[in-house]
What does this fold into?
Amino acid sequence: MIKGLYSAFTAMEAAWRYQDVLANNIANSNTTGFKREHASMQPFADVLLSQQAPVPAPLSARVQAVVGQIGTGAFIAEFATDFGAGSITPTGNELDLALTGGFFQVEGPDGGTFYTRAGRFGRDDNGDMVTSQGYFVLDQNGERITLPPSTVSITPEGAILDGDTEIARIGVVDFAPGQLLRSGEAFFRSADQGTAIDGGIRQGFLEGSNSNMVEELTALLAVQRTYQANQAVLARLDGTLEQAAGEVGRVGV
It folds into this structure.
């Protein structure tokens, strides 16, 4: 009975945590460059059930008869980020940039480096190239990029051209799976430097979120039903325990 309570509780806890992830994916379905998360759920190891009394047999051969197995609940094994590409949408804006591979490098408020696919950039008051959050976009050498007041063109290789003059080259790096850690809705950090890559920049385009609203809502409904079902099981087991305690008390009188 107690194992049943534990199994129902752990399943509810796992569903609750997964629901938070799905809700965040849905909330960021329109966030530029957002990468959805998904959870991997695994069961705890099953427990063998055995009879308490030995099976009738010669003393030297007596064994416990295995009745069956009972699960002991589920847990979230890990949260993982889906780095699949989002849809590319044309905007026509000079400093809107989309990538076909890798990540932009930006300088965060603490001076550290963030990596992102969110390419909605602009100029600050000093002419520096910045993200919509005000973070500095970095070139291939990790330096800030200062733009001229005139309109610039950006090649697929990341070269920023003022007319025919290259004034900077946007830094784009790529990482092996598992090297990036989420640090905000569309930003990541890494202990590794990554590998510099050329090409794949599209000026006048933005990459949208890779979160699919229909899929996320469908998964959210399934998780909510799982939570409700285990909640009902927990309530039923609690009532059974309460009844058993009362009956045992009356039998002993």
